[in-house]
Amino acid sequence: MTESAPDPAVRAKTRIQRENEEKILEAALEVFSAEGFRGSTIDRIAQEAGMSKPNLLYYFRSKEEIYRAVLDATLDGWLDPLRRIDPAGEPLDEIRAYLRRKLEMSRENPRASRLFANEVIRGAPLIMEELTGTLRELVEEKAAVLEGWIAEGRMAPVEPRHLLFAIWATTQHYADFQVQVQAVLSADEGAAIDGAQAFLDTLFLRALAPR
Amino acid sequence: MTESAPDPAVRAKTRIQRENEEKILEAALEVFSAEGFRGSTIDRIAQEAGMSKPNLLYYFRSKEEIYRAVLDATLDGWLDPLRRIDPAGEPLDEIRAYLRRKLEMSRENPRASRLFANEVIRGAPLIMEELTGTLRELVEEKAAVLEGWIAEGRMAPVEPRHLLFAIWATTQHYADFQVQVQAVLSADEGAAIDGAQAFLDTLFLRALAPR
DNA sequence: GGAATTGTTGACCATGCGGTCAAACTGGCG
DNA sequence: CGCCAGTTTGACCGCATGGTCAACAATTCC
């Protein structure tokens, strides 16, 4: 009650709070990305985080609250590569760089990719707002940039939204369908993504180069 | 016991058996594709199939048996478009036709695509054998065909396995990530796939045309 | 019709799971 | 130390879920 300075409803987080919340989010990403929301259990996440179930529920009030937290914590990072497409850059260089960033995400954080894949396949019950809001607006913004480049004759004329879909699909494929890729090639994930980078550069840059 | 002709352990299926098994597989595809294995319940599938849970379990002995059955029933159809790539055909025509067939599958049977996506994201616990067996061999066979075409200078030199990944990823994207596609465009699925067809034709055919 | 086979289901069981709670323990600070 | 907010957990509750079973209903075949 007797808070001196700021918002009395929000107390500063203790060291233990910060540490445990981080442990929980890490564990939740591991479990939710592999099992999906309904397939995951609080017990499993607690075990992964090295604490008891009631203790985990001391930090997050419900399974859905954990899920939302880990989705939110991951969403920004997912959108970032797209945000960084620079209207002032050289079109094909920007697209190549975007491919790199997305592939790098598939290599470094495949769990984040699978987390979203799971959520979206289910019909995106919890992130529909972000899809029709933030994502849609960002896509429109970048689509306009691409259309500008096309109008200037600096890249081949294609529907920019479908181009973005194709980039998402091809890059995230190496995270979401990792076991399939590895079953077909017999390479580890790193090697597969190296091959992917060479291939996708060729595919997109040849197709998008102005005539 | 007293079977006259063939395998005494396998009796011919009755009309009711055939009808009900079909109803169950249809319902199971609906539910498993939307919820994944762990997220689905037998009760839900039984309800969708219009019968009681014990009745459903009279035809399939466990949840996993239903799941395997629906996976098997869908797998062949999933592989078929790839099988139909004709070594005697014109390379770019064959690839265009393959794209068409895969996109058509995303339009006509998105549930099958999502069923596999769910399974593979989870690490393909039940179809790993098919991935490293049937699929891998089929990919090797078709990769050899593509490499032959490349050696003959009839299409651009690219790693054929990654080309197949890219085709799978881009076409199945419209089924697996349907809600995202619809959130970003504001078109219905049919219209989105029409746009996809035009775009993917351009993307792959421009990239793969021999210089 | 009637027997045998096939099909159907309400009731039930055991387990798993999300979530609660009271009681105990701990860390930081005067 | 001694206090107290903050932290931890064993035990528990209620409900959902996979699966069983015995009894009942419908078909099939003579």
Question: Explain this structure to me?
Answer:
2 copies of one chain form a homodimer. Chain A is mainly alpha-helical. Chain A is built from 10 helices and no strands. Chain A has helices at 15-39, 42-49, 53-59, 63-83, 91-108, 110-121, 128-151, 160-176, 178-184, 189-208. The first copy, chain A, is elongated, with a radius of gyration of 20 Å. The model of chain A is unreliable at 1-9 (pLDDT under 50). At the A-B interface, helix 1, helix 6, helix 7, helix 8 and helix 9 of A face helix 1, helix 6, helix 7, helix 8 and helix 9 of B. The structure holds a DNA duplex (30 and 30 nucleotides).
Brief overview, please?
Helix content of chain A is 75%, strand content 0%.
List keywords for this structure.
homodimer, 211 residues, mainly alpha, 10 helices, 75% helix, DNA-binding
What form of chain A results from the Cα inertia axes? elongated
Which secondary-structure class do the elements of chain A indicate?
A: mainly alpha
β content of chain A, as a range? under 5%
Mean pLDDT of chain A: 93
Number of strands of chain A: 0
Total helical segments of chain A: 10
Distance between the termini of chain A: 70 Å
Q: Approximately how much helix is present in the residues of chain A?
A: over 70%
Quaternary class: homodimer
> Unreliable segments of chain A (pLDDT under 50, ≥5 consecutive)?
1-9
Give the radius of gyration of chain A: 20 Å
Q: Biggest interface pair, residues each?
A: A-B, 52 and 52 residues
**Helix-strand topology string of chain A:** HHHHHHHHHH
**How does the major sheet of chain A shape up?**
none
